[in-house]
Amino acid sequence: MDAADFSAVLSEVRRFVRDRVVPLEAEIDEKDEMPADIREAAKKMGLFGFALPEEYGGLGLSMLEEAQLMFELGYTTPSLRSMFGTNNGIAGHVLMVGGTEEQKAEWLPRIASGDVLASFALTEPEAGSDPSTLNTRAHLDG
Fold it and tell me: What is the secondary structure of 21-45 as a DSSP string?
């Protein structure tokens, strides 16, 4: 993405956050739910795939651009960024680094579009919310 395009994206996100999300912060907190129109607007802006490569439908932002975007998203309730954070982070990144070409082709465009919402679950009781503390290793049994 060239500088002019990114500047336009950043301006659009800034306007969206301040004009549409900030006025709803109390409602979002009270209902513990993001309004459907906000989710749809985030989809249309490509926020569900801002860190994913353009070839898979993402915005393909650089790390610097991602950081600048995060500043704008951080202006309001953390719920906004959390709505699509796993798609870009844990799920999207894991697929980009460790997925097969078939997995990438099947899942990354759907994740980037927001049609599929990714999640992350830890089933080990001692893990809490930090998987780096796990010391378990897979082993062949039989």
Answer: IGGGHHHHHHHTS--HHHHHHHHHT
Q: Determine contact, residues 117/127, Cβ cutoff 8 Å.
A: no
- Report in angstroms the alpha-carbon separations of 17 from 53, 105, 117, 138: 24, 31, 21, 44
77 neighbors 18 (Cβ within 8 angstroms): no
pLDDT over 90, % of the chain = 65
> How much is the pLDDT for 1?
79
- C-alpha distance across the termini of the chain, in Å: 52
Question: Quick check: 112 and 48 in contact, CB under 8 A?
Answer: yes
Count of Cβ atoms closer than 10 Å to residue 104 Cβ? 19
Decide if 85 contacts 34 (C-beta within 8 A): no
pLDDT in tens, 40-82: 999 999 999 999 999 999 998 999 999 999 999 999 999 998 8
One-letter amino acid at 30 equals E
Helix axes 63-73, 3-16, angle to 10 degrees: 20
Joined tokens for residue 86: 């796993």
The verdict on pTM exceeding 0.85 is: no
Structure tokens at 24: 């709803």
